[in-house]
Structures are given as C-alpha cells and as structure tokens.
Structures
1.
Amino acid sequence: MLSAPDKALLVKLFYMNEESATIALRKFRVQKNAKIGKGPLTPAGLLKFVKRFEETGKLEDRARAGRPCLKEARAPCIAVEMEAIASEAASGTNSAREAARRLGLPPSSVRNILRRILQLYPYKLQSCHELLPTDTAQKEAFAKWAFSKMEQDPTWVFNILWTYEAHFLFHGDVNNHNCPIWATSNPREYTQKPLHSPKGTAWCGFTGSFIIGPFSLKRSAQSKWMDNGNGKCSALSNASAGDCRVMFNSTRRSGKTESSRRSRYLWPPRSPDLTPADFWLWGYLKSRVYLSGPSSLSELKDAIRREVSSIHPDVLHSTVAGFVTRLECLLPCGGGHVV
C-alpha cells in the first residue's frame, strides 16, 4: 500500500516527465531503490490514479461501498488481545496462537492481520549476562579508555592478544531452531546423546593478524587449567614479547586483566558481548568442527586444530574491527548490553 508521500511523488514524476506513466514509474523505482518491474503500480494503474486525482484533487482512494474489510474490522480486537496476553507474561511476550484461541479465529488469519494490518513482526528474547549496578559505569569507562588508546595509536587494538578457553563436547549440539526438516509428513527423526558427553577443552589466543593455538587443557589437582604438554606458556611468552602489547584474558564473572609488559587495565566484568573469543571465535569454530562429525576425541582435537589453522588473517582483522564497533555502541547506551 502506497503512503501519501509516495503517491504525491508519483503524481509529480508523472507531470515532470511529459505525462509518461512508464517513465514516471521507472524513476520512482530508482529513487526508492526498488527492484525493476516490482510495483507499486502498472502504467495503466498509474494513469487511473492520476485521473482520479485530477477529478477529486485528493490522493486518498475513494471510500468503498459495502461492508468494511473483515481483516481491518478484526485488527483492533486482535491488538487488544495481544496487549492483554503480554501484560500477563512476566517477560512481556505474547502469542498469536493464544490470541487466535481466545478470539476463536484461525491462527493463520491472526498472523496475517498482525503482519499486514498492524505491521507487527515476531522477535525472540535474547539472553544476556546480568549486569550489576556498577557494571555499566565500568564498561562505559573502559570504552572511553580504549578510544583514547586508539587515538594515540590506531593500530593498538589490532595488537591486543585476546585469550580464552572453551569446552568442545564430543557429541556436539543441535540447534533445533536452525535445523528444520522440510517433508510431506513428520519424519520422526531423533538425535541421541549421553547425559554426560566426553569433552575437550581448547585454549586459543589471537590478534588482528595471527592466532595462537589451539592448546588442549586439563585440570590439575588444584583445579587450575594447565597446559597439556603443548607448549602454551612458551608460545604465549613469545607472542606477547613480540607483536602483542597487551593481553586481555577476560572472564565472564569478574574483571581480570593480564598484561604483557606496558599496559594494565581492568577488564569490565560480565562482558562476553565485548570479547571477540565469546562473540565470534568459539561459535564459529564449533559450527565448523562439528560439520565433519568426529567419531573420537582425537578426531575432535584434529578438527579443532584444522579449523583454527584455516582461519585467514583478514577474518581476524574484521573480528577485531567488530570489537571496535561494539565499543561504539557502548557509549550511547551508557555501558549497557551490546546485542
């Protein structure tokens, strides 16, 4: 449905182009960046619209005779019912199916009215780490400090060594929302996995130009992560003494910073939305590692090493640039969540 400004623009283009409906529509699509041949009217339809405008002097359509559209008549009731359902839920969520049940309407009709008449669209809740009252101020202060460092040296952020570890379950995981099976009938497919799946823990560190690892970790008797004989400490020492100017080993629960030699700053607590290892590395690696379907822990470790070694430096550079973008989002929201 055309808005009033779009209708006015069409009439204007029609008269500016020697009353050619074809040229007017072509220029309208160019200005609106619309696909060639896709609406909003045919040349014949535009001529009828212009003729009606000349007769009435109005851009609005003539009032139609007969009873009103059933969808438009039902829209207010559906809007009220959706608000009532949202008020009953602690999280403010609502359900088109529940509204249809309460009103005695087909769910497909309710969804159609929500989208086309009420211009509403479904969104999913996002889970974020809970922030304490002091956390937002620390995150905002950290962003300002980081920008001051980048003003002094634009390459500084690309020389940070981001480090963290993650668990890789042997049986992987299935995202039910992203794995549909389109079929004419229910295939009754299931995936089975044990209650406690064997797992390996990998450590990685990366900058905007290179990646270190992966290194396999195991817990010592003192419950501290230890290198599993792969030389993590040696590689980390060489990297931090060379190209890396500061190392952030950011934790999820509390602020913690380990510095290479020249810089020390407290990492804002509960900030996985800022940590490249959390918002990119581990999710990317797991999506790649489980594609090969490793059949043993050794194959799982080989797949992790293979995928880490295949990461191109351009991808690392782009990821660190994404960290800068997230810092920019911190300032307008006062240090709140970056999603």
2.
Amino acid sequence: MVSTTKQLTDQQKQVLAKGLNYNAADAKKLDFIADLESALKGTELTDDAKNNIRHQVTTNLLHSKHPVDLTKQERKALKDLKNDDDVIILPADKGCMTVVMDKSDYTNKAKALIN
C-alpha cells in the first residue's frame, strides 16, 4: 500500500512485497559455526553438552531453507528506500501489508493522535 506522492520503482515495490521481516543480510553458515565454536570455548559446559549443541545447530542449519538472495537491482532499491528521508515505511494496521507514507503526512497524523 502506498500513500506517498513519490513514485516507487518496480524494484522497490518487489522489495517491499517481501515484507518488513525479510532478512536481506543473513549470516553465512560457516561464519555462524565459527562464532558458535568460539562461544563454546568460553563456556564451562561438558564436552557432551558442547557436542549436543553442535549437533543441534548443524542439523538445524542443514535443514533450514536458504533465503532467496536479492538481485542487484533489489539491493539498490532497498538501499534507496532506507536512505530516503522523505518517506516512512511501516506495517499496516491490519493485514500483512507494508505502508509507504510521506514523512510529513505521518508526522501530521501522529500529532493529531496526540492532541
């Protein structure tokens, strides 16, 4: 849903359609495992407990769905939206939609609610 005077590009609309909870920068699995190993070294857990944690984490990583990577155009569109100070992006009150509003409209509505 768009409530702004600014025209959104097709790529910006595609990125917003993924939803506000879309993780565009997931950690690499090997980096995650390396960080886990580092964290396990600093604990006083038994070797059995550490092995159990390793097993559970690697099993979950292997069975997890790989996130769909954003295209170069979608990454640029996301960056442009994040850097645009004239719009506010927020979830809709109802439904699973994303709302793009002019910042001035959002501010006026917020002030009206406060008064």
3.
Amino acid sequence: MNDVNRAAAAVATVKLLIDGEFVESRSSHWREVVNPATQVVLARVPMATAEEVDAAVAAGKRAFASWRKTPIGARARIFLKYQQLIREHMGELAALLTAEQGKTLADAEGDVFRGLEVVEHAAAIGNLQLGELANNVAGGVDTYTLLQPLGVCAGITPFNFPAMIPLWMFPMAIATGNTFVLKPSEQDPLVTMRLVELALQAGIPRGVLNVVHGGEDVVNAICDHADIKAVSFVGSTRVGTHVYQRAALAGKRVQCMMGAKNHAVVLPDANKEQTLNALAGAAFGAAGQRCMAASTAVLVGAAREWIGDLVAKAKTLKVSGGTEPATDVGPLISCAARERVESLIAAGVEQGATLELDGRRPVVPGYEQGNFVAPTIFSGVKPGMRIYDEEIFGPVLILLAAETLDEAIALVNANPNGNGTALFTQSGAAARRFQEDIDVGQVGINVPIPVPVPLFSFSGSRASKLGDLGPYGKQAVTFYTQTKTVTARWFDDAAPSLGVNTTISLK
C-alpha cells in the first residue's frame, strides 16, 4: 500500500443510517470533508447509490406504519430526552462543527442552540397538533378535524448551518408522526451525524430517521421517489428552484428556503455605536455565510457620514481559525468559495464601486492554507453591479445611499429577494411605517438578523422562498400533516327515523 492509499485508509468514512443501522456505503464515489482553516482531511463521505436511497425510503415507509400510531405523549418524551442530550454534548457538537465548517466556537454553539430551540418546540407537540371541533352543526351532527402525518418526508440541508437546519426539519416532521430521510450537506456532515446518533439515543425507533449522503443524483432521487410525500430544502436559489419544480411535478409538498440579499436601512437618528456593532456582526459573522446576513446597508441622509466609523469597526475584528480565542471571522467553507468571493470583490472594483476596505488574502498566522477573506466594505454601490445583484455569501458589506426613508423602502422593495431586512432608528413612527410598507418576510427593528424563535415561523418571501409554509413553528405542523375532516352522527335505538334525504343538506 503506498503513502496516498495509507492516508486515505486512515481517514474515517461517514456512514449512512438505514433502518436504525449505521452502514458503510457501497458507493464508488466519495468526497473529502476538509477543515477549511487548515485543509486537513477529516473524513470521507459517500455519494449514496440509488439502491441505498431506495433502502432508506423503504425503511421509513415500513416504520411509518407503527410510528404514526405511537401516542403523541410518547413522541414528545423522545424530544424531551433529545434536547437534554444536545445540551449535555454542546461543547462536543460545537467543536465538530468548527472543525468541518470553520465557524468560531461561540458561533458554532449558537448554531446548535438555535436548532435546540426547535427540538424543545417539538417536545410540545401535544399542544401543537390539535384539530378543531364544531358541536351540533346540524341535528345531532358534529364536525371535527384530525391533523394526520403524511408518511415518509425528506430534508436537504446546506453547509452553512449543519446543526441548526437539520434540527429545523426532522424533529418537527417526526414529532408530528412522519418518518424522515435526511440528506445533509456533503461538505460538513460530521456534526449532523453526531446529532443523528444522539437522536437515536433519545429513543427514535429504527427506520423513523434515515440518512443518505450525496450530490445532485441523490437530490434528484429524493425529488422523484414515489414514496416520499414532502420535501424541505434550505440552500441556494439555483438548487432550490430545481428541487421545488422537480419535487412538485412529482406531486409532493415542497418548501424551499433559498437565497437572499438582506438590506439594513440606517436612519441618522439611530444609536450610532449599537448600529455599527450590529452591522459589523451581522455582515461579517460566520464569514458572511448566512442566508440572513445583513450583507447590504442603505445609509439614509446624514448616516452616509458613518462609512469611516464602519470601516474602523470592521478593522477591529480578528480573522483566524475558529478555535482560536477571540476570533470573530473564520474561514470560508472551501477554496472554491474563497475564489468566488474574491472574484466578486474584483468585479465590484471593475464596475466602479469604492473599495473602502479590502479583505482579500489576509495574513493569518498558523493558518496559511486557510480559506480566509477578511471583512470587506464597498461604498457607492448601485443596483446593476454584480456585488449588488448576486448573493456574495462572504464577509463583504456593500453600502448604498438614500436621501429619505421612502427612497430606501423603494430600493429594498425593488430587489427580488425577500428573506430579511432591518431598520435602525429611534423613531417609533419610522419603524411602524417601515414594517408596514416593506415587502420582505422577516423584519427587524434595531435587530440585524430577525430570525424568529420557534413559537413563530421562518417567513422569508418572494424570490427567497418557494412554497407557502415555513420550516419550523406552527407552519411546520401544517406542512407535515394532512387535515382530515370528519362529520359524524350517532343514533340511539330509540331515535325516530329521519327518512330518506335526497338533498345535499344535513337535517
């Protein structure tokens, strides 16, 4: 065995989960999971075969027959146990996430915690999966609804939140009585698989949760499979549009959360220091790899004078490996991602935007091979420039100018995306007008990343979302259940005959 083969053999392989067993894939196609700060290979992940996808779905279909009959309290208690296990393993999960994805340890814990909130919500399923009853709608007739599970559901998750977004999906689907096939991102599946192990430890029965890995072929197999009833997706607009069209054509329920261009509108009366802190954190945190990143700021009126202060604030952020103390900005997920961000920065310069702060090729001691881009700021940006029209998905903040709040609102509403937006102001009147007139699904008032807690639902809109329902909260219960309406009348032996009724009415 040569040195290359020995090195490959020494790297762990990521398993599939099929029918309660972690199994080695028989695939001939594998890719490496790489630490983005060091380029060290952490594991090899398989591109599952068509037969393995079929086996995972078949396991879910078999398990559904009994799981759908499991009492709702028994389902809830599994998720009570699951949230406890996640809390106990928070440090381990964050370390895994940082190693494969690059986030700082603090941000990795936040990733896990925001998913944990949905697990806690799933534990309250007894209060969420309630039908309705109307008593005596006609003579002795009652009508009521049942919220029943669909069957086998599937989730396709992205690289940027490998803990939170899987936890958005399978807990709510399983708590409502469905079984689930999860396809994590092939770029960073390790923390997802550890969460899956803990889910089984919490008591999820065999076949109720299954995991396959892969790329386009596996995604298409999920979209096409006749036994999968619903698909949830979070990722790029290009892939999300494909998934929605293909899965919907196959007759499935589909929800796709996709790309964004989130604008933060800054009025000159805003608290300056708090606003600068919020913009820097929301633009550059997670190296800008958030679909809810505040990547675009619209400076209104005198707030345009804050550019120098914003640049100074960005320069204070530490760029390093995610495990280093006090790190603010870690690496991008891959060399290809870094090259794409750098090319967009170059395009911004070529198209006439002013490069206020250039973060290309920073020197990061000890991490010379890392995929780093430091905080970057452009001013003088206008619609039509690539850095405005495209989602950069890196630590790049672009600044636009507006004379008035009305002009800023019109600018935001003209953008096709509708994931999130924020207004920074101390004026209640301005805030109320903004939240009423802005055509964006999630609005923050002095909150830069307005992702709601699971008591509500993620509510992106327009080009950022396909499908009517969000991936967690009350909308997820609706998405993962079928409403069945029952109209019932019972007679006792002494009741007089009502005779034959040939009309459509109830008597």
